[in-house]
């Protein structure tokens, strides 16, 4: 697929986990499609929130061409991670300079959200494929109450200007050494002049709960949910968005290993003794 008309312009791939009808997707496509970069999208056919890094191995994937907000791209019958993999390895005719995922309906602050989020997973899959990437999400509530449609659309329009600028910066400069992707979260409304905080993920954002109920036939079923905590530590992403009303930019690294951690030598010796015991 040829994506864009500008000879020699860099290509940005947009994905998400909310599907093709998302107002955050449309706002981001419109903000990026200003002639400075070529833009395309590959998104799941429907909402895939909290799908994480799931990949589809047990059935074939389908892809359909579609146009959204004047941009041509694809809708795929898989997960956000599937979308990025198909784009990089099959559907696109060149490697994107950046992958921009979002703008998600709801913030993805905190490790509990980051590890579960399909929005972050699309950016993570891009990073694993060697493409600098960013995940963009926006809080859509005020005092625990969902924002109205008009306020939400205005919020996405504001946030998309910052998301597009961050994406162009990545195309121009790449990401700093040791940073593989950015997790960017916006408040519902961005104050002017905007405050941007460089943050770390808060570890716990929710108090998890599982509710058990009975269906009409007497069999149990379960709802998994979480009540959002408050009082987040200064310097964290949730603190920036919920307490400060700021834009949170969290640099992330895909290398999770920590082999030099204190105490690991003792475990290594213990495991090596198992092998010697067999002899």
TrEMBL record:
The keyword Cytoplasm applies. Its EC number is 3.1.3.5. Signal peptide: none annotated. Its cofactor is a divalent metal cation. It catalyses: a ribonucleoside 5'-phosphate + H2O = a ribonucleoside + phosphate. The keyword RNA-binding does not apply. GO terms for cellular component: cytoplasm. This is 5'-nucleotidase SurE. It comes from Conexivisphaera calida. The lineage of its organism: Archaea, Nitrososphaerota, Conexivisphaeria, Conexivisphaerales, Conexivisphaeraceae.
């Amino acid at each position: 697929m040829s994506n864009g008309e500008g000879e020699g312009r860099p290509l940005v791939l947009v994905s998400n986990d909310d599907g093709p009808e998302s107002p955050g997707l449309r706002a981001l496509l419109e903000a990026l499609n200003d002639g400075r970069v070529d833009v395309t999208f590959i998104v799941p056919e429907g909402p895939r929130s909290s799908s994480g890094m799931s990949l589809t191995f047990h059935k074939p994937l389908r892809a359909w061409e579609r146009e959204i907000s004047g941009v041509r791209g694809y809708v795929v019958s898989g997960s956000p991670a599937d979308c990025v993999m198909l784009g990089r390895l099959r559907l696109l005719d060149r490697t994107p300079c950046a992958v921009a995922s979002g703008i998600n309906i709801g913030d993805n602050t905190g490790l509990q959200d980051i590890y579960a989020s399909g929005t972050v997973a699309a950016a993570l899959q891009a990073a694993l494929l060697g493409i600098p990437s960013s995940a963009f999400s926006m809080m859509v509530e005020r005092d625990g109450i969902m924002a109205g449609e008009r306020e939400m659309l205005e919020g996405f329009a504001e946030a998309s200007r910052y998301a597009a600028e961050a994406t162009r910066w990545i195309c121009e400069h790449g990401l700093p050494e040791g940073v593989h992707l950015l997790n960017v979260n916006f408040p519902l409304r961005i104050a002017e002049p905007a405050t941007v905080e460089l943050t770390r993920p808060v570890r716990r954002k929710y108090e998890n709960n599982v509710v058990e109920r009975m269906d009409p036939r007497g069999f149990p079923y379960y709802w998994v949910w979480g009540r959002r905590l408050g009082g987040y530590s200064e310097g964290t992403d949730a603190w920036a968005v919920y307490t400060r009303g700021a834009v949170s930019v969290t640099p992330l690294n895909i290398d999770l290993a920590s082999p030099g951690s204190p105490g690991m030598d003792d475990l290594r010796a213990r495991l090596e003794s198992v092998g010697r015991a067999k002899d």
